[in-house]
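Take a look at the protein record below and flag anything odd:
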Amino acid sequence: MASSEQGNQVDEIQLWFARQLREFVAGAGGPSYRQLELGIDTLGASLSKSTIWRILNGKIHPKPEMVEQIVRAAHAYAGRPGEPDLGVWERHYDRLQERLIVLGHGSRTIANAVADEEGRIWPRRLGSIPGAVEAFQERLDPLVDRVAGSFILTGTGGVGKTQAAAEYIRGRLAAGDLDLAIWISAGARDTIVSGMAAAATDLTGASYQDPELMAHRLRTWLAGTRHRWCVVLDDLSDISHVRGLWPLPSARGITLATTRRQDDGLRGYGRRVEVGVFRRDQAVTFLRARLPADAGSDDDLAGLAHDLGFLPLALAQVSTYMCDRKLDCRTFRARWADTRRRLADLIPEPGALPDDYPVGLDAALELSVVEADKLHPAGTARTVLQVLSVLDPNGVPESVLRTPAATALMPSADEDLRRDAQRDGVRNLRRLNLLDIAVDDATAETRILRVHVLHQRSTAELMSAARRYEVARTAAQALLDCWAAPPSGSALDRMLRANAFVLYRREPEALFTPEPHEVLFRMGRSLGEAGQAAAAVQHFRQIDARVHDGTTGGTSALAFKSRGYLAWWLAQAGRHGEAADAFESLYADQAEVLDPEDPDLMQTRQSAAVWRGHSGDLDVARQQLEQLYLERIRIQGPHHRDTISNRNHLANFRSYCGDFQGAWELHDQALRETEARVGPDHPDTLRARATAMRHRGEMGEIQRAVEAYRALAEHLQGAVPGHPSTFSARHQLHEWVARSGQLDAAVAGMERLLADRLAALGPEHPHTLDSRLLLIRWRNRSGDRERALAEADALRRDLERTLGPDSVFARAIPAALEPW
């Protein structure tokens, strides 16, 4: 286009703008140039009459602040209330600017010329971009090769979101594919506005008195520029802070926001990119670069990183602390494990923090909690986090928090409101990336809550001793309440047990004061029922020792309870003689303080007899059970459940002593009583019939035993196919099928049973191990000795790894391999 034609078009656009401004002044009552000059003077600005005339007649291209001054003066002259609508004039001015740029004129061209004159050439950096950190680990794969769009970098405090964004900018600048980088602190709306306004002034040469207008001016400029740009909104703390300010979409621009938040409201602003903690290899590489070579091996570094939850900020500050004090990994980890030391004692002083980070690890962690606790309903997030802080960082079933014990901590007198507050507290923690929610793979239903180990430690440190005690006892009761439902060996049972042991390690005194909490006994029972009988013995030894160390001595009800649990798990661990001794000792002490007819005393007497028999004294056990059975009939009656239990044990020991007829008589009596009570087809009757027929099988009528167990197994398989009682019936059925000589059919059935138990109960459950032993025995007896030996070796290795070489299952392997 010829120069004269361009000039004409420039004149036309300036005249158009001047006409809009003149019409506004006329509509305000038509003040004179002098009156406008005086009005502008009262605003604290200065604009001469001649300049006003030239602007209103399109003779010059005005700066935006000049336009604002004329509009404000005319608005005031008209006596109109409030502020004038400057947005209209921003849009008019943007139209003027865009047209002038197309024609090669306008304030952006002028601003660029001034920038060039001052040495501020492209590419441009506006705002304070953080410096590079030592040993930075790249983790923004979703942003690789991305030059346009909007992204939300979200993650808990300290994962390195800010550094990731800064490194992205540095990488693009170094590659030469970025012209403009704008870094804006987004902690509050006014800092966002001021940062955007400053950038707009730098880029356009314009300067409105209203920073909001300048912020919008930047948005318009970015949307229309041919330069490649990136805007970072760092540490966005509230979605409302960016409403109306988010840069407009552009094919040449990318917007990154870093935030601890992950509210649903962020979805409309851009693609969410999760920034998590380091992987193991990243953490080791990071520490190796920042610590002396003699600080430790890679395994030592990995252990240190694990202690710190692989949080980048923690690794950075702790590595600086270690270097300043010349500590190696093992020495520092010993300090870290000492819970008497606070987080602030294990990081550098404020003046020695690395990487220009403004606050220490302890303050950074607390910042997110404070923000979460402000969310409605205020105060609930911290309460939820306090309970989670004493439990397992690897996962807490959400049902624990929904128990009456846990919801009672919520600040409300109404139970329904407390439950709602608890749910909101969980959600508020999630909104600040303080908590992850997953669904348990095993159940596909149980929601699992995970909190970073450092947030747990920080939260626990900030609680008073009284509050920690209250929270620990609350958590214990909540776990106990949840334990009423899940069957032994289930995924939920394992999770509750893991949480209980974490609570025990972290708050042992709270669980023993004023007396041992019931959860201590429940967690030990769960441990034993999961096949870890030896570990249960060790656990109950600790409980028993603590009880005896107390003021109650060894003959209180509490002491009797702990001794009873210990004796029982000695028996389950296969230490039958020790169990018998323990029960006999307990019986002797109970007999001194309890009535001879006390049910607890009789139960201890029965247990002592049973385990004395299992230790080898079969006749002694049978005689003691015979005597106790008669006493129970006299004292408790023949139909009392304890009497029936005694009769069952007596029948078993008659069988063990070879008195199959006597055993049959007792169990046949039980069968007839059950059938009379519930009918011939009831599951209880089927169980009683199978038990009685077992003795007929022992007397040679094997087919009767097979038929009885088949009827029971088929009924249970149809009613409760995955229940442990169904598996037990199938186990007995296959045993009797094998005894009948149908070895191939028995082995095939045992293989199916083992597969079902593995799927339902897991590889370490006692019933699963029983199935493996049974399969080895009958595979060996069917002639497939080579495979039986291979499976026995595999079982032995698994047992050594999980339960130890001296477990009751390991001791049973040689017998399973004996010839038939």
In short: The chain has a mean pLDDT of 89. The longest strand covers residues 253-259.
